From TrEMBL:
The chain crosses the membrane at residues 38-57, 89-109, 168-188, 208-233, 254-279, 299-315. The lineage of its organism: Bacteria, Pseudomonadati, Pseudomonadota, Alphaproteobacteria, Rhodobacterales. GO terms for cellular component: plasma membrane. Keywords: Cell inner membrane, Cell membrane, Membrane, Transmembrane, Transmembrane helix, Transport. It comes from the Bacteria. The keyword DNA repair does not apply. One of its GO terms (molecular function) is transmembrane transporter activity. This is Autoinducer 2 import system permease protein LsrC. InterPro entries: ABC_transp_permease (IPR001851).
Amino acid sequence: MHPQTLRILALAAALLATVLFFSTQIDGYLSERMFTRISTSAAVILPIAVGQAIVVITRNIDLSIGSTMGVVAYLTGDYLSGHPELHPVLVLCLAMGIGAGIGAINGILVAWGRVPSIIVTLGTLALLRSFLVEYSDARTITTASLPQWLVDLPQANAFSIFGIDVRVTVVLALASAVVMGLCLSRLRAARRFFAVGSNPDAAVMAGINLPMVTLLAFVLSGALAGLSGFLFLAKFGNITVVAGMGFELKSVAAVVVGGVSILGGSGSMVGVVIGTVLVDTIDNSLTRWELVSEFWRDALLGFLIMAAVTVDTFMSRQLSRLSRKES
């Protein structure tokens, strides 16, 4: 069986075990209300996890993704408060466009400035948060200033399955993962992300424009952070300068737990989706589980990242040894 398939099956088993465990600890856990709570929460994280996965596949990382999401949520909400007549599709394009622009700045600095991505995105993380503080001038975006269609969006149902309603926001988030998953598996141009992450030198020798591939990865990451910013604005309505803070950790956790190698070159969107749901299920469940403090929630996310990286490194070494023996 292919290693990626094994990882997905292991993730699915871990998710099932997590749900079964918390169902014995929390009253009314297996309910439509809890499903809606977790699915809509995971929907906000999923697009930034997909974007983070693309960047990580190219052997980079985007630590500014949470700040990008916060800036997009605030700027989009601020613009809508003065232009409530703007069409929903144009609002979504605006949010993703702002995010893509921020991602392009990161990509240019990494691809042509040759600055390590962790340094660049740490810098833009701080700069974006500082910009938001200055721009907002302590003002909060409230639901009262937003158009009614956006306020109603989180409660809008796309369809029902087994009598359980699935929200439109969940469908939007899943669509981003499905589209990117199909592109990575079907489009030859998108396979260049894997080539660059697996062996940058070999990719250059094969004629791949490494700086352009790196730039595109960050632009996509920024655009998907813009989508998350739009979903964040719709879900919460009241946006402050701390919007999106801490989502960097959640996106990295979802990606590495989802089986995307932190060393680049491998990963799947199916794993990212399951990893996102697993991380958010644990986070939401611990919130309702009174035995665990908020400190331990963050500590557990950190532990999940370390465990996932350790397992990934171990599996990579074992596969390398098997390949050498076969050859």
